[in-house]
Design a protein that fits this description.
It is built from 16 helices and 20 strands. With 490 residues, it is α/β, with parallel strands linked by helices. The chain folds into three domains: 3-104, CBS-domain; 123-351, Type I PLP-dependent aspartate aminotransferase-like (Major domain) (Aspartate Aminotransferase, domain 2, 3-Layer(aba) Sandwich), CATH 3.40.640; 354-486, Aspartate Aminotransferase, domain 1 (Alpha-Beta Complex). The strands form five sheets. Strands 7-15-14-11-10-8-9 form a seven-stranded mixed sheet, with helices on both faces. The longest helix is centred in the C-terminal third of the chain and has 23 residues, at 464-486. It is globular, with a radius of gyration of 26 Å. It binds pyridoxal-5'-phosphate (PLP).
Length: 490
């Protein structure tokens, strides 16, 4: 937003200030006196305090002004950064006559992206090595090395890990290699990315969509139990946004009914369920290395198998179903789902940094918790005992009904403040291609979560000033909306 959108005369009414604030953005206004000189900042909180002190909406904005940290327009970078890291909002920039000529904020220089990769390790060196050695296809040493490194993280031998072209084909190949196909039912959560269900359909099996748990956002074991039939072949939990699914309950159900468990761990590299890495708990676990994931190869994925024979079959299917002992002799109808050496080179460089990335994600979650914790109507991602949530995408669920606007309108307000967000996934059962797989089951939890859910910027490249700013904007917007409703301005 431009300076004019964020400036108001201090003799304007509080009503005018509120309705200007209510257009979205950082939820703060810069106030100026009759001569256009800076007098302070105003927001929902300062207006609320003024009203509590006996003022009303016709009172001038000056009664709610908080004189605060402006800087000279020619302030150096260090002072600017220091000032921004002190607060959670905008910093007015003044000329020699104290007139605002611009403002700074962590989102002024760049729109804060919801995700972006960090490629500051050995990525360039290893990819260059591929080019210099001319090993650019899937033949090449980085592929096996990447598989071995993933295996180490998961406590599995390299032979049981397959690098593949993306997280979607990882799911498809896992399903096919484990023998899931026509006539089989696979139970999966309503709240997930479409690839989870698409691949079940592509494998020829029948997906069975069930509701999720309100706290973990993951598949609800009680709903799974209720959906098991004689044709059920597998359960496909998704560790959504890095939060581990309730594996003990699911494994117990699987053991009782002789079902396979395929973990969609696309979003959960680094997450742990009790003492076990997500993706290495079920019969197979799949990962995505798309550029927004904890570690990335641009596009890419992997499958971890619990048993070596399934892995061996998958390896053959990954390479057109070709007999590994006899070139161009095909044993099954297979695929080309291979990852290239260049992508694996990126992956090798990324996995070296995995612990640091994970630490940063957890730090970001802590920083968000500081600004957003305790705000009415904002549910933060759960930090459940014994589980390690990687907080891959820090996702909050807000009570937008109490704010009188929709999730999407709120997202537009944040966008105006330079903050990109992502809606929580839409319930699968609501989308046309998947409606037939809902049966007559109910999905109250997914429906409610989806309407209120927003994933916030979570890249490991975020600065503390950025997370504080994002938290501050959300908190101020929420407070403002409650005030606007209370005073009947909405
Ligand atoms: C839960 C889930 N499953 C599967 C996938 C598919 O992974 P890819 O995009 O690498 O194909 C994703 C991707 O984002 C995902 O979030």
């Amino acid at each position: 937003m431009g300076l004019a959108d964020l400036t108001i005369g201090e003799d304007s009414s509080l009503r005018a200030a509120l309705s200007q604030l209510d257009r979205g953005g950082p939820a703060q206004l810069i106030t100026v006196d009759a001569k256009g000189r800076y007098s302070g900042l105003i927001d929902g909180g300062t207006i609320e305090a003024a009203i509590a002190a006996g003022h009303n909406l016709d009172s001038p904005a000056s009664v709610a002004v908080r004189p605060d940290g402006a800087l000279a327009a020619d302030a150096d970078e260090t002072s600017l950064r220091r000032q921004m890291s002190r607060g959670s909002g905008i910093v007015p920039l003044l000329d020699a006559d104290q007139r605002p000529v611009d403002y700074a904020s962590p989102a002024r220089a760049r729109r804060i992206p919801v995700a972006e990769p960090s490629l500051s390790g050995n990525e360039l060196k290893y990819v260059t090595e591929c080019i210099e050695t001319r090993w650019i296809s899937s033949q090449g040493p980085f592929v096996r090395r990447f598989e071995a490194e993933i295996g180490k993280r998961l406590g599995l031998p390299a032979e049981q890990v397959l690098a593949v072209s993306n997280g979607t084909v990882a799911l498809h190949l896992a399903l096919v290699a484990l023998g899931i196909g026509p006539g089989d039912e696979v139970i999966l959560p309503d709240l997930t990315f479409a690839a989870t269900i698409n691949t079940v359909i592509q494998a020829g099996a029948t997906p069975v969509i069930v509701d999720v748990d309100r706290v973990s956002l993951n598949i609800d074991p009680a709903a799974v139990a209720a959906a098991i039939t004689a044709r059920t072949k597998a359960i496909m939990p998704v560790h959504l946004y890095g939060q581990p699914a309730e594996m003990d309950a699911l494994l117990a159900l699987a053991a009782r009914h002789k079902l396979l468990v395929i973990e969609d761990a696309a979003e959960a590299m680094g997450s742990r369920y009790k003492d076990r890495p997500c993706g290495a708990i079920g019969d197979a676990g799949t990962f995505s290395f798309f550029s927004n994931k904890l570690i990335t190869t641009g596009e890419g994925g992997a499958i971890a198998f619990r048993d070596a024979r399934s892995a061996q079959r998958a390896r053959m299917l990954r390479d057109h179903g070709m007999d590994p002992a006899k070139r161009y002799w095909h044993l099954e109808v297979g695929f080309n789902y291979r990852l290239t050496n260049m992508q694996a080179a990126l992956g090798c460089a990324q996995i070296e940094q995995l612990d640091r990335f994970l630490e940063r994600k957890i730090e970001i979650a802590g920083q968000y918790g500081e600004t957003l914790g305790g705000i009415d109507g904002v549910a933060l991602p759960a930090n459940l005992p014994g589980l390690l949530n990687s907080y891959w995408a820090y996702s909050i669920v807000m009570d937008f009904a109490a704010l009188g606007i929709s999730r999407d309108e709120f997202a537009v307000r944040l966008d105006k403040a330079g903050i990109e967000t992502r809606p929580l996934f839409y319930p699968l059962h609501e989308m046309p291609p998947y409606r037939p797989y809902a049966g007559n089951r109910a999905y109250p939890t997914t429906t409610a979560l989806s309407r209120g859910g927003l994933s916030l910027p979570s890249a490991v490249t975020l600065s503390a000033a950025e997370t504080r700013y994002i938290g501050g904007v959300i908190a101020r917007q929420a407070q403002l909306r409650r005030l606007v409703q209370r005073v009947g301005l909405a």
